[in-house]
Design a protein that fits this description.
138 residues, 3 helices, 2,3-Dihydroxybiphenyl 1,2-Dioxygenase, domain 1, homodimer
């Protein structure tokens, strides 16, 4: 069973513009704003609920060609995916496969926050679902 | 500033069908499954992360006429809204209005979990946003 909601991701046209609401109006201070050129995006994390809490992630595509940019073009700004933290991503992947879930990865991919797999919306009632193992703190 | 992500809501055609993935495959046990006739929906809450954690809410429209049923018809299953818990919903409403956020409620509405207001997606980068004050535990 997943440990918690790690983050909820929102795809936006422009992070600074989105922060007018999320930072100025709502009062959530971003912990990180950075370019991730390998994924052709700029991201911001808005932490809520302290260390055991969850984050809102803002994702801004930085090139017109990525699948995220095409998602934005087609669907507009809005909710993009949910990420749940799991204890062990390898065991989770095996279990998802054994139970016939439509996992998009043959093995865990290296994400910014740890190792992750994605499950296709067709298996989750329409939700792109990320499952993530964070590196253990040492 | 909001205290935490209270829940993330997913609109589904059929809760039992959605639970095949969320309960059987993912292993999250619903804390509540109930009809809410006043809102023409059936809902399930899937708690994650313990008492300080967040929940996934599954929402199934039970009539064809509600705005939720129309949303489902138009957009299909998927992410519907995020809810953030706040300390004081009256103060939050005043602040949102003073800062020009497109709040959908003139005063807090009575939701199942407490008193809440909704902010229109046009002010939040495309996300229907619920802000909720839960009754204080006594």
């Amino acid at each position: 069973m997943p440990k918690r909601i790690d983050h909820v991701a929102i795809i936006v046209r422009n992070i600074e513009q989105a922060l007018v609401f999320y930072r100025e109006t709502l009062g959530i201070e971003p912990s990180v704003i950075k370019d991730v050129p390998s994924e052709q995006v700029r991201i911001a994390f808005l932490p809520l609920g302290g260390p055991a809490g969850s984050e809102i992630e803002l994702i801004e595509p930085t090139t017109p060609d990525s699948s995220l940019a095409k998602f934005l073009e087609k669907r507009g700004e809005g909710l993009h995916h949910i990420c749940l933290e799991v204890e062990n991503i390898d065991a989770t992947l095996q279990e998802m496969q054994a139970k016939g879930a439509p996992v998009l990865d043959k093995e865990p991919r290296l994400a910014a926050e740890g190792r992750a797999i994605f499950v296709h919306p067709k298996g989750t009632s329409g939700v792109l679902l990320e499952l993530l193992e964070r590196p253990s703190a040492e």
